[in-house]
TrEMBL record:
Pathway this chain belongs to: Lipid metabolism; Phospholipid metabolism; CDP-diacylglycerol biosynthesis; CDP-diacylglycerol from sn-glycerol 3-phosphate: step 3/3
Bilayer topology: Multi-pass membrane protein
Name of the protein: Phosphatidate cytidylyltransferase
Compartments reported by the entry: Cell membrane
Length: 267
């Protein structure tokens, strides 16, 4: 527990100042986190980052992470979606060049890994560009959900939520996580003057809390499938980069979509 707390404090001391600074320093941090997360995910599959499919996946990740202010497209007006398709074609071509020692399943994994991590962290950057208060709101929702789910689940949990995927999670913990996230959001809005109605904040908090827990379960699912306990060891006591940011990879895109969708209504 001491190591876990020390790692958390040191990581926060590096991460939070760069979040506050934003711009290029934060973008470079997100690129580094994305590369580490991709490395961890490919390693679960037994694929090397420094291999032909790994490099294709890495290049795709780099393009998907490119913030909108630096250009959401590349030269000749090629969109990110078209780049994704080009990467898929290259990976499929490699199945031929490797004489099928590199399979369609592995090509699909390499492409999906880059899309999942690339777009997930991309929206982390985009949320920061919208406003610092939204980043701290998302961080608070995720952290309060995790804490509430853990402590309330440990104290009151009896019914398993999804034992085939994560045997320690309970239904009581699931609702406890939502409850603590709602408490956090109410305090956050009262303390910061968050520019939205209490009803809107309540609704998005509940949705983001649920989505964050689904993101956590999704990572648990593929770790269990690949017989891996932690995605990595870069954060002693916490595991790997994916272990710490699995919820954010779901929460940040959903938060961005909600803000864009409901912006015209002035909620």
């Amino acid at each position: 527990m001491k190591q876990r707390i020390l790692t958390g404090v040191l990581a926060a001391a590096i991460f939070l100042p760069l979040v506050i600074v934003g711009r290029l320093p934060f973008t470079l941090l997100v690129y580094a986190m994305g590369i580490l997360a991709l490395f961890e995910l490919l390693r679960m599959k037994g694929m090397k980052l420094l291999s032909a499919p790994g490099i294709i996946s890495l290049l795709l990740l780099g393009i998907l992470l490119c913030p909108s202010q630096f250009g959401g497209t590349v030269d000749f007006a090629i969109t990110k979606g078209e780049i994704v398709f080009l990467a898929v074609l290259l990976l499929l071509a490699y199945t031929v060049l490797s004489k099928n020692s590199f399979s369609f399943d592995e090509a699909a994994f390499a492409a999906l890994a880059a899309i999942y991590i690339g777009f997930g962290f991309y929206y982390f950057i985009e949320i920061r560009n919208i406003g610092l208060s939204y980043v701290f709101f998302a961080i608070g929702v995720v952290w309060s959900t995790d804490s509430g789910a853990y402590f309330i689940g440990k104290a009151l949990g009896k019914r398993k939520l999804w034992p085939e995927i994560s045997p320690n999670k309970t239904i009581e913990g699931f609702w406890g996580g939502i409850f603590t996230a709602v408490v956090f959001s109410a305090v956050y809005q009262a303390a910061t003057g968050f520019p939205h109605s209490y009803l809107f904040v309540l609704l998005i908090t509940v949705l983001l809390s649920i989505v964050g827990q689904i993101g956590d379960l999704a990572e648990s699912a593929f770790k269990r499938h690949y017989h891996v306990k932690d995605s990595g060891r870069i954060l002693p006591g916490h595991g790997g980069m994916l272990d710490r940011f699995d919820s954010f990879l779901f929460v940040m895109p959903v938060l961005y979509f909600l803000l864009v969708l409901f912006q015209p209504f002035g909620l």
